[in-house]
Amino acid sequence: MVAKLVLRPPHSLPLSTLPSKFLIFPKIPSLPKRFLIVSLFSATAAAQTHPQISNPNNSSYFYGPSLRKGTHPLTLRSHPPFTKTEDDFDDDDLFNEDSFSRVFDIAALRVPAKDCFALESRLRGHLLNWPRIRNIGRVPGDEVEAELAELLANQGSDLEDENALASLNRRMYGKSEGDGEPLSPVLYREKLAKTFDSRGYVKFRNLARMSRPNQRKKRGDEEGEGGEGKKRWGKSEFSVLEVVDDEEGEGEGEDLKGLLGDEFEGRRKWRGSTRLLLLDERYAKKGVEELPEAIKVVMKENTRTSMRPAFELVRCKLTVFYEYWQMNEILEALLPEGMIVPSAFETVGHIAHLNLRDEHLPYKKLIAKVILDKNKPKIQTVVNKIDAIHNDYRTMQLEVLAGNRSLVTTVVENGLRFHVDLATVYWNSRLATERQRLVNSFTRKDVVCDVFTGVGPIAVSAARIVKRVYANDLNPNAIEYLERNSVINKLERKIKVFNMDGRRFIGAMFASDKAKSITQVVMNLPNDAAEYLDAFQGILVDRPTEEEFTLPMIHVYGFSKAQDPEFDFHQRIRIALSEAAVDVEMRRVRLVAPGKWMLCASFILPKSVAYAKPTLDM
Ligand SMILES: C[S@@+](CC[C@H](N)C(=O)[O-])C[C@H]1O[C@@H](n2cnc3c(N)ncnc32)[C@H](O)[C@@H]1O
Question: What positions does the domain SAM-dependent methyltransferase TRM5/TYW2-type occupy (predicted)?
Answer without folding.
Answer: 345-607
